Amino acid sequence: VPQHVWRINLDTPEEAHQNLSFGAADRWWEQTDLTKLILASNKLQCLSDDVKLLPALTVLDVHDNQLTSLPSALGQLENLQKLDVSHNKLKSIPEELMQLSHLKSLLLHHNELSHLPDGFGQLVNLEELDLSNNHLTDIPTSFALLINLVRLNLACNELKNLPADISAMKSLRQLDCTKNYLETVPSKLATMASLEQLYLRKNKLRSLPEFPSCKLLKELHAGENQIEILNAENLKHLNSLSVLELRDNKIKSVPDEITLLQKLERLDLANNDISRLPYTLGNLPQLKFLALEGNPLRTIRRDLLQVSTEAL
């Protein structure tokens, strides 16, 4: 990055010296210091500590470069609200980053992170955090302090479990844990009252948790796991659910209580081991999409299968 970029707030430009309306000692513009700096899609291998000369920055975007580390001076950008360092080669995050108390959006996806600083919970104003496509094996328990977080993406990592403490994220609406190694989901997750979208696809789950408090949950994606049983207990509190995706599991039966999901619009049960369906499925008034291919269904009358769509 050319040096004059970092010094843009400090140095008077050439044209100011030739223009009598600028005093040499004055700042060359009166309105504001630089607030947004976008250096994305270059070939940067490092960022200078001189980034601290831009204290008014609210947005710093360096995604799609070749950064292997971040300068500790980033911690001095106390007005920073959005930091995008995705699609780089970062192996760690400097502790100083935890000082950015006004940060609302932190995008770290597609890097080479294997661990996170313990102090992550200090980023109390964070609303969006994307950690997908890294090598994370665990999540700091201090995540519980991120009570303003709305979207958390942990997809495509190496997580074997989630800390029960993340249930303290009372504002969380979207949680994506796709493609990890989760064998269970902490039962406390079910107390997250604001949760609207939960992605658990491509893990090693054998059962679904019960969701007693997830009254707002609209989408539950749990395909490509090893779920064998779908219990009535899993379903009975999900009054707002509109999408239930359970394809590519080992489910043998669907409970009659599926009719409690009165707002269900999409039900995907493809590629399971279901031989019969409850006739009560007919009592789902909003259902628009029902996928059942790849199941050994034996109870649909042959004459139904041979008539036209209209007759059906």
TrEMBL record:
The keyword Electron transport does not apply. One of its GO terms (cellular component) is cytoplasm. Keywords: Leucine-rich repeat, Repeat. Residues 203-293 form the Disease resistance R13L4/SHOC-2-like LRR domain. The keyword Transferase does not apply. It holds the Pfam family LRR_8. SUPFAM superfamilies: L domain-like (SSF52058). InterPro entries: Leu-rich_rpt (IPR001611), Leu-rich_rpt_typical-subtyp (IPR003591), LRR_dom_sf (IPR032675), LRR_domain-containing (IPR050216), LRR_R13L4/SHOC2-like (IPR055414). Signal peptide: none annotated. This is Leucine-rich repeat-containing protein 40.
